[in-house]
Amino acid sequence: MNGKNYRLFKSLALVFVSLSITAQEQSLTLEDIYKNNSYPTRGYQSLRWMEDNMHYTTLEADPAAGCSEIVRYEVKNGERVVLVGAADLTPEGLDEPLQLRDYIWSGDQKHILLFANTRRVWRYHTRGDYWVLDLESGQLKQLGKTLESASLMFAKFSPDDSRVAYVSKNNIYMEELEGELMTQITHDGSERYVNGTFDWVYEEEFDCRDGFRWSNDGENIVYWHSDTEGTGTFYMINNLDSIYSIPLPFPYPKVGTTNSAVKIGVVPASGGSTRWFDIPGDPRNNYLVRMEVIPGSEQVMIQQLNRLQNTNKVWLANLGNMEVSNILTEADEAFLDVHDTPIWLDDNRNFTWISERDGWRHLYKVSQDGNEILPVTRGAFDVVEVVCIDPSSGYVYYIASPDNFTQRYLYRSRLNGKGEAERISPEDEQGQHSYQMSDNARWALHTYQSATKPPVISLLDVKKHKVVRVMEDNQEIKESIEALGLNPKEFIKVDIGDVVLDAWMIRPPGFNPDQKYPVIFFVYGEPASSTVQDNWAGGDLWHQYLAQQGYVLISVDNRGTAVPRGREWRKSIYRQIGILASLDQAAAARKLLASYSFLNPDRVGIWGWSGGGSMTLNCMFRFPELYKTGIAIAFVSNQKLYDTAYQERYMGLPSGNPEGFKNGSPITHASGLQGKLLLIHGTADDNVHYQSCEMLVDELIMLDKQFDMMAYPMRTHSIRERENTSLHLRRTMARYWNENL
């Protein structure tokens, strides 16, 4: 078929697809997905269990009042009471109520901290204004009134509920609830020095944001302090909001370069000099990733990862004499993940700990001196998440899925390590279960979902796993999507010889097994996430839209992805990010093309975002005979361009693994490009810098390789800021598939 006839044939085919879709009662449109928000699921925001374990509160929108209100529910009878309404949220002298993002109860539950007028700090809304509402008097008081508007972060009540501490402009402040006394606790906060919060890499890679804690007696504040001097400054350029470009500098340590120097100190809550814990090790080549005050104690627990992140030293630090002692050292030949599960038990004689020391991620009980380590959970399965530890009943409740790595269920085990793991989630409810439990493990807000079932939220009696009442079934959304006549996501296994991989497939509406369909692979492939999960994921409407256009969609989880398949699975990619994964992806694609006759081997596409964008490039460049079209979004083209904490965790230092960094970087293999490739990147991407795109573009030009690209000015890693961005992005992608695949 010559080029002119092929273009005519393709146009007629697209018209046929369009007419077929029009003939349906309804069709899925990009406008409905990305502009009209036609298929939203409903849930509960900021749920908090109350001290009596018989009530919980949520944040619920009241359209009539023009704000969100704090609502209390009674567990047994479902009584609903608006605790904090629009009138309570309207400050004196203002006409409109506060627009709440979140709230925090005081310990005595007589006051509520209200978080409003918020701003994003990189990923999340962690900066804004805080107000305190006295529930008895109705008095509404703004904190930090003399400080810059919307500059407060991480406000929290003192143990006696008489004061609130918070961060503003990298300094810590304390304020009395009675009166107007505000005390500045630290004074060196600046672009260089960060107190009570963190620099970019700690926030992004260790999920560290809130950087201070009250001592148990309320006399001291324990906090992280970062010195960012010496860390390389990366500049993004804002060309949209002024006639002159605006440079946007921020410290960002790239692979192999200098990290911030981080330490932990203790300062009187009334103000004064800081005392510093003398934790051994170079503060720029170790990470202080966790610090928590031990309940009823003058000690804090500190977790210290070395630069390679294969050794975690746990320290007990005394607030009185400032002495530190190493009570536990966790080590791995590859890398370690940070776990937030240390819970102190038995009058602080023992604490819980997560470890992969037996090849699976399990919960252990460790004595305070670290000399005794006893397993709590046992077996050939991973503990995915600890939900609740209930010392009174002697059980720990956790999420696991021994038999299906795409699903999640509630289990419980005895804290003494005896007996077998007991599954609590019903056998007939296949999919994913999550639980937000009361402290006594009696009640839970239970969310059940699967790839074909939107979330159903119920109040649950945990002991019997009995539904007390359904809070939200999202039935309307389920019916709306079912009316589209789409084919459900089906889960399959792919045996590539060395290992069997999990995958899913979506077939087009009106599927005919005798036809040949173009296939698009969706890939991520790195250790931070997984694409093959039996959850709702918003209905995966983008991929359903593409299936509606006549494509078969497939996604495969290669080795090393974040699924509960044991240590060997997760650590297999150590020092070979981008290498083993792309081999697995290509092997899976070949196996699937050979197994399903309706997949057209001459029309194979692949796309991914972030690590998935990098994987797309590696697959396109390394296996050009297999992949004909690709879309790579927000990708890392050269692993040396990414940050220290993430890339060094999985690859080691460049000096110790030069071949791995070279062979795992897509730019190394750019000469292999043969198919159609679209590069997409946001120019204000603070995570994976636009520099990564420009360097690959420069390499492809040098190699005389043809490609397409789309830059989104002043959009971040998510490429969703500013008007119409999400819709435009998906239109661009859909057009590229239709023109080239």
How do you describe this structure in short?
The protein is of the alpha+beta class and 741 residues long. It contains twelve helices and 43 strands.
Span between N and C termini?
16 Å
User: Which class of the domain at 28-38 and 488-740 in CATH terms?
Assistant: Alpha Beta
Q: What is the CATH fold-level name of the domain at 28-38 and 488-740?
A: Rossmann fold
Describe the global form: globular
Could you name the ranges where pLDDT drops below 50 across 5 or more consecutive residues?
1-24
Radius of gyration: 27 Å
Name the average pLDDT: 94
* DSSP E strands, number: 43
| CATH architecture descriptor text of the domain at 28-38 and 488-740 | 3-Layer(aba) Sandwich
Number of helices, where a helix is a run of at least 4 consecutive DSSP H or I residues: 12
Task: Give the strand line-up of the largest sheet.
Answer: 36-37-39-38-40-41-42-43
How many strands, which pairing sense, and closed or not: the largest β-sheet?
Answer: 8 strands, mixed
Helix/strand-derived category reads alpha+beta
Q: What is the secondary structure topology, with strand pairs?
A:
Blueprint (H helix, E strand, L loop, with lengths): L2 H21 L6 H5 L10 E5 L5 E8 L4 E8 L5 E5 L15 E6 L5 E11 L2 E11 L5 E3 L9 E6 L5 E6 L2 E6 L5 E3 L8 E3 L4 H7 L5 E3 L5 E8 L5 E6 L7 E6 L9 E8 L6 E2 L9 E8 L5 E8 L4 E8 L5 E8 L12 E2 L4 E6 L6 E6 L5 E3 L9 E6 L4 E6 L8 E6 L7 E2 L8 E6 L5 E8 L2 E9 L4 E7 L2 H8 L7 E6 L4 E7 L10 E6 L18 H8 L3 E5 L10 H5 L8 H16 L3 E11 L1 H12 L6 E5 L10 H8 L6 H7 L11 E7 L7 H13 L5 E5 L12 H16 L1
Parallel strand pairs: 38-39, 38-40, 40-41, 41-42, 42-43
Antiparallel strand pairs: 1-2, 2-3, 3-4, 5-6, 6-7, 7-8, 9-10, 10-11, 11-12, 13-15, 14-15, 15-18, 16-17, 18-19, 20-21, 21-22, 22-23, 24-25, 25-26, 26-27, 28-29, 29-30, 30-31, 32-33, 33-34, 34-35, 36-37, 37-39
